[in-house]
Amino acid sequence: MHSRVTISVSIVTYHPDLILLNKVLDSLGSSLEMAKESGIIGEHEIFLVDNGRDFETDPTIMTPINKKYLNVKFLTGHGNVGYGLGNNLAFESSTGDYFVVLNPDVILEPKTMTSALSFMSTNNDCGLLAPAAFDHQGGKLSICKRYPSVIDLAVRGFLPRRLRKLFASRLAKYEMQDLLNQESIFWNPDLVSGCFMLFRREVFSLLQGFSPKYFMYFEDFDISIRTRKISAIAYVPSVKIDHYGGNASRKGLKHILMFCISAYRFFVTHGWQWI
């Protein structure tokens, strides 16, 4: 790499688990520091986007974070604008050559950022990188997906685990298990998860960020489709994260409703596929 790049990281929070958030920041700080020591990055900045007004109503929460972590910037006072628009607010304030969208429940490995930025530095046609993801027990998670049908989403999102087994082969195809592995880079999957997205700044800017159509859910699917129209997407399994998130059905009726509304908007925009 001819010069050190800069990187901006956006974490949108809504009533976060502060213990987990500190673990996330610890892992992020360690990963960024390793990348800096390797010479691959110069400056970095981290944005905590306060959608739940937690930091606004209790500023004392910010004090230990500010003392412990350098280059953290708090964005507060805007209310709950949704996940996608929260990240857009961070981007508008950011300056990095790369823009990372990171869930507040994602733990990075020490080498995550070094591996990701090394790949981006040698693959200039890649505008969006997706990592390999694991749950807290080490199980493989499905970051990449094929374009969904309504049935795929209903089965995966709402059926009890014991009934989902009846659709195992269908779900395996949707989750691209026939094409993805732990060794090989895969180019241009249909869709990638929004729990960790590393964009080139110019790509995210051309996209004008996440669509305002989606308050929560499907903003990542939508931006994946739009990204593929202007740049390449790469799934890079050497870049690893641990994701502690859950699905919408386990979060109650409100989340199920938001999921269904966003799914409807997604299919209206990009085309219905029922079966």
TrEMBL record:
The keyword Transcription regulation does not apply. Residues 31-204 form the Glycosyltransferase 2-like domain. Pathway: Cell wall biogenesis; cell wall polysaccharide biosynthesis. Coiled coil: none annotated. Transmembrane segments: none annotated. InterPro entries: Glyco_trans_2-like (IPR001173), Nucleotide-diphossugar_trans (IPR029044). Pfam families: Glycos_transf_2. One of its GO terms (molecular function) is glycosyltransferase activity. Keywords: Glycosyltransferase, Transferase. Belongs to the glycosyltransferase 2 family. This is Glycosyl transferase.
